[in-house]
Amino acid sequence: MPTRILIPSGVLGLGFDARALAKGVRNRPDAICIDGGSTDSGPYYLGTGTSKYSELATRAQWRDLMLARAELGVPLVIGSCGTCGADDAVDWMFALTQQLAEELGQSVKVARLYSSQSSQTLTQSYAQGDITALSPEIPLDETVINSCANVVALAGVEQINAALASGADIVLAGRTTDTAVIAAIPIARGDHKGAAWHGAKIGECGALCSTNPVSGVIEILFDQDGFTVNPLAESATCTPYSVSAHMLYENADPIRLVEPGGMLDVSRAVYEAINEKSVRVTGSQWHDSERYTVKLEGAKLVGFQTSALVLLRQPGYVAKARQWTDQLHAFLLQTIEQQMQLSQHEYDIEFRLIGVDATLGALEQLSSQPAEVGVLMLVTATTQDIANDIARLCNPYLLHYPLTSDEELPTFAFPYSPAESVRGPLYEFALNHVMQLQNPMDAFRLDVVELDYD
Predict the structure, then answer these.
(1) Residue 261 — very low, low, confident or very high, per pLDDT cuts 50/70/90?
(2) Which residues contact 131 (CB under 8 A, 6 or more apart)?
(3) Cα 163 from Cα 184, distance rounded (Å)
(4) Same domain for 284 and 211
C-alpha cells in the first residue's frame, strides 16, 4: 500500500482551502505533515525565538488540523515550530496545543523535539573539528558562537522518526529541513528513499507546486517506485512543469539537494501527467553520505534600530535623491559628532531610496525617474536610547535639508507622526555551517508528554 501524506499548506499560519482539507481527510491519509518555519523574513525571529505568524491565525489553523488528526487517528507532524524552531518557539506551539486539547476534549501524546544548541556544545564541537563552513563562508570562532542569541540544528528524518517511535499522536519539532517532516514516514515504512525525499521537496510548500499556489492543500502518495502529487483544491492542477520547477525553489542546484545523511539526485527523474490534475514522478535517487551532518543556523544581536521615512516629490529632489542623501549623510555625521559627541563606531546611518534602488542598491539597472521617492533612514546604534536620540536629531533635517546652500529651505513629507519608529533589537545570521554527529540524535532532545482532557 502506498503511503499517503496530507500537506495542508506550505506553512502553518498561511492558511488553506477548508474544502480541500476536508477532501484530503476523506482520502484517509497516513499522516498530516506541515512546516512551521521560514528564514524568508530574516534573522529577527531566530534571534528572539519568536514566530512571525499571527498567533490567532496559527491557533485557528492548528485547531482544524488537531480535529482532522483526531478524526483520522494518524500522526500530526509540524517542523520548525514558530518560524525559527528554537526551543522557546517549540514551547509556544506546545502551549497552543495544550490549550486546544483542553478546549476540544482530546487526549493526545505529544512529542517535543528540541533542536537548540548550547554555546558549550558548539564550542566543543568546533574545537574537535566537527563544525565545517559552507559556501559562502562566514568566519567562525568561539567569540562568534558565544555572541549568538540562538543557534539551532536542522533535523532530518531520523529525528522525526525517533519522535514518532515514541507513539506520539502529535510531533512538535524544532528546526527541521523543510522536507524532513514529509519524507520521514514514507522512509520509515520502506518506500523508495529517493522518491520520499524528492516528493517531500516538491510538497514542502503545499500547493506551490500547482497552478493555484494559494489553495494550500495537496496530498502525495509514496510507494516502492516513485510518488504521485495530487492537488486537492478544485481550482488547482499539477503539471509536469509545475512539479519539476519546484526543485528550483530555494535550491542553488535544481538537480541535487543535500539533506542530513545524504543527497537527493533528480537527474534521472521522469515527470508524467497521469490525469488532468496529478503528476507521477519516478527515477529519483538517494545517495547516503559518509558523514552524518546537520546544518546550523545562528543569529546574533548587532545593535538596536530606529527608522524614519520621508517622501520627496519635488522633481529636482526626486531626480537627485541619491545626491541629496549622500550630502545629508555627510552633514549628519558631522552634526552628530559635534552635538552628541558620539563616535562613528557607536552607530550607523543608512538611507534606502524606495522607488529608486531600495531593493537592489548598486545593482539596480533601471533608471526611469519616479514621481516620488521614499527616503527610508535606518539608524543602528549600540543602545536603543542612542538610536532614538540620533533619529530625533535627524528629524528636522529629513524634513528641510536643502540640496544647495543658495535655495530656500524645502519642505518634504512625513507620512506619519511621530516620524521615528522604534524597530528594537537588530539581529544578523552568524552561521553557515554544518556539524558532524556520531548519532543523529546527539544534537537533539526529545520530551514526550500525555495530555489527557478526554
Answers:
(1) very high
(2) 122, 125, 140, 296, 433, 434, 435, 436
(3) 10
(4) yes
In a domain, 278, yes or no: yes
Residue 309 included in any domain: no
**What's the confidence (pLDDT) of residue 251?**
85
Per the CB < 8 A criterion, the answer to whether 221 and 206 are in contact is: no
pTM (2 d.p.)? 0.94
User: Which set of grid coordinates corresponds to residue 15?
Assistant: 492558511
Question: Cα(first)–Cα(last) distance of the chain, in Å?
Answer: 32
Phi-psi category of 342—alpha, beta or left, where left has phi over 0 and alpha has psi -120 to 50? Answer: beta
Q: Are 143 and 238 within one domain?
A: yes
Same domain, 329 and 284: no
Render 168-184 in DSSP notation, one character per residue: -SEEEESSB-TTHHHHH
In the DSSP assignment, the letter for residue 344 is: G
Contacting residues for 164 by C-beta, under 8 A, at least 6 apart: 75, 77, 111, 171, 184, 185, 188
Flag whether 28 is in a domain.
Answer: yes
CA gap 91, 117 in Å, rounded = 15
Contact 136, 105 (CB under 8 A): no
Mean pLDDT of the 407-434 span:
94
Domain that holds residue 385: 314-412
